[in-house]
Amino acid sequence: MSAASQYSTASPTDVQVSRGRQFTVSKITILVIFLILAFLFLIPLYWMVLSSVRPLGLIFTSGTNMLPTVTTLDNYSRLFSSVPYLNWFANSVVQSLGFSIASVTICAMGGFALAKYRFRGRNTLLILILLSQMIPFYLLIIPLFVMIVKMGLVDTLVGAILPLAAHPIGIFFMRQYMLSIEDELLDAARVDGASEYRLFFSIAVPISRPAIATLLVLFALEYWNNLLWPLIVFRSPERMPLAVGLSTLVTQYYPSYDLVMAGSTLATVPIIILFLFLRRQFMEGFGALGTGIK
Amino acid sequence: MNRLTTFIYSRKAAPWVFLAPFLILFLVFKVFPVVLAVLMSFQKIQGINTGEFNGVANYEALASNVRFGVALRNTTLYTVGTLIVLIPIPLIIAVLLDSGRVVKATVFRTILFLPALTSLVVVGTVFRAVLNPTGLLNSAIEQVGAQPQRWLEVAELAIPSLILLAAWRWTGINIIYFSSGLVNISKEIYEAAAIDGANAFQMFWRITLPLLRPTTLFVVILTIIGGFQVFVEPYILYPGGQSPGDGGLSLAYLIYRTAFNSFNLGSAAAMGVVLALIIFILSLIQFRFFGAFQREG
Question: Is A292 helix (H, G, I), strand (E, B) or coil?
């Protein structure tokens, strides 16, 4: 009995019942738990950055010493001189933006059609698109590989982007957002003589700007972090994006952890900085993608 | 203007024009490959040009393929493990963050979300170093006086290592999913329940959990689909993707190897079909399971 009552003292939602000291105790307990969690979640990232400025000899011999006592930027300069890292980075930027812009464009157009027009087969099409999300990519890569070889798209930007561009979640997300565009608004523009295409560019796109921005950010991140498809498409080291290039260093039997940690840090820190500027876009975007599918 | 232009500008044609780029790519790179993959799974394929139908031989071969069995078992264990870790913990954290009891909730939410921004290649790399015999985890274990483990060199520790990695990488994003589900639950329901004398646990079980069901269904399905497709993690964590005793061999990784190292495309396609069926059936069961719940509530 006493154990049970003690438990309810520290329980999360008894805010309405508990007062004073009890409240403070539970709040402090929760804070401690969250501080420990935050520590556990940050430590691998911190250790990555720390190892990237440590000489190789110290990465695995420092135990739990977390202080940057001996630091060097040698790892970075050797990373740039021994592998085409700057190429990989530039490729990642170009490919991520290319994928994101291409995919969001076709998803916005398709989403507008699915949201604002009535036509035969619309609902069937929507269900088909959503169901396709369940197809494992590992089933598709085998025929896709054969296809891009035959189409001569190996090692090309087009080969990397086009097979991924028809993104089911993207078109569904844009459709959900565009459902809120009022039909009266579109009809009024039609009466004024605007063509259907004018409606899209002059009304739908401006109204959907927040959704488009969110999707652009999320899709760029998705490509930036993607390994599997680019791993199959790109063969020449100087054309690879970061994830693929890095993986060629890491999958060796004895990877040079100094280089690999520097490479990982440079692949991650820009994203985290970008994230801190666009935090709401990122987090609300992920949430919206999640709850959009009910 | 001529009739074609008039037609293209008509309200009837417009949706199809808008949909055309998506649909063409969808048909060429999604629908067509699915059909092709199923066909390939019934073929003996040499190189990428010559395929001849050989009935269900690829599927028969799978039944006696020991590594396929191991991969299936590992992948199932991994998925179950991630479900056990990645549903209740993020759910509880999200409820706590939402309760207004956590000081600086936004800061914690942001910190827990950071791993979701990192590339799996980077996560795999960092964890390979952390799980190294003299890596950070073992140093910490020694510090508290426990026995260090050879995390990446023992077959039995492969799945726990992969689950540890998954817990770090996906907890934050699942919190976001649950949080955006919680936003939709009206605070008035809780106030009414509090007036009726409900305690915190009753509120959690009777209000939060049932009303959060659509979100939970979504996260469960996502976790299953993700779990059964685990590839990058074992690929990066082990040198050349080769885990000791095949302890970390996943289905997706085996498909990748079979297709792109052994160039046995027919057999890989058959494995892909089996993977697709597993994901499809499990998702269906989830829909029924959660659907039944909904009628009951």
Answer: coil
Q: Clarify whether residues A67 and A95 are in a common domain.
A: no
Q: Cβ of A196 and B9 within 8 Å?
A: yes
Do A73 and A23 reside in the same domain of the chain?
yes
Residue A110, domain CATH: 1.10.3720.10
Q: By C-alpha distance, which of B286, B279, B278 is closest to B62? A: B278
A163 touching B (Cβ < 8 Å): yes
Among the partner residues B101, B114, B136, nearest to A41 by beta-carbon distance: B114
Contacts 24+ apart (CB under 8 A), A114-122: A114/A171, A114/A175, A114/B15, A114/B19, A115/A174, A115/A175, A115/A176, A115/A177, A115/A178, A115/A179, A115/A181, A116/A178, A116/A181, A116/A183, A116/A186, A116/A204, A117/B11, A117/B14, A117/B15, A117/B18, A119/B12, A119/B15, A119/B16, A122/B15
- From B3's Cα to the closest Cα of chain A, the distance in A is 16
Does A252 contact chain B (CB < 8 Å)? yes
> Is A157 in the same domain as A247?
yes
pLDDT in tens, A136-183: 999 999 999 999 999 999 999 999 999 999 999 999 999 999 999 999
CB pairs under 8 A between A and B: 320
Secondary structure of chain B: what % helix, strand, coil (to 5)? 75, 5, 20
Residue in A with minimal Cα distance to B29: A163
CB contact under 8 A, A26 and B168: no
Provide Rg for chain B, Cα atoms. 24
Domain count, chain A: 2
pLDDT beyond 80 at B296 = no
Residues on chain B touching A287 (C-beta within 8 angstroms): 176-177, 179-180
Chain B CB within 8 Å of residue A25 CB: no
pLDDT value at residue A60: 86
Domain containing residue A246? 81-291
Q: Report whether CATH 1.10.3720.10 matches the domain B59-296.
A: yes
- Total number of residues shown for chain B: 297
Is the Cβ pair A287, B176 closer than 8 Å? yes
Mutation target for A interface from B5, B19, B22, B136: give the one with most A CBs within 10 A.
B22
Provide mean pLDDT across the span A109-114. 97
Angle between helices A209-225 and A242-250 (to 10 degrees): 20
Q: Where in chain B is the domain with CATH 1.10.3720.10?
A: 59-296
| Contact check, Cβ <8 Å, A139/B37 | yes
Interface residue A43 vs chain B (CB under 8 A):
yes
Same domain flag for A52 and A63: yes
Rounded to 10 deg, the angle between the B88-98 and B66-86 helix axes is 20
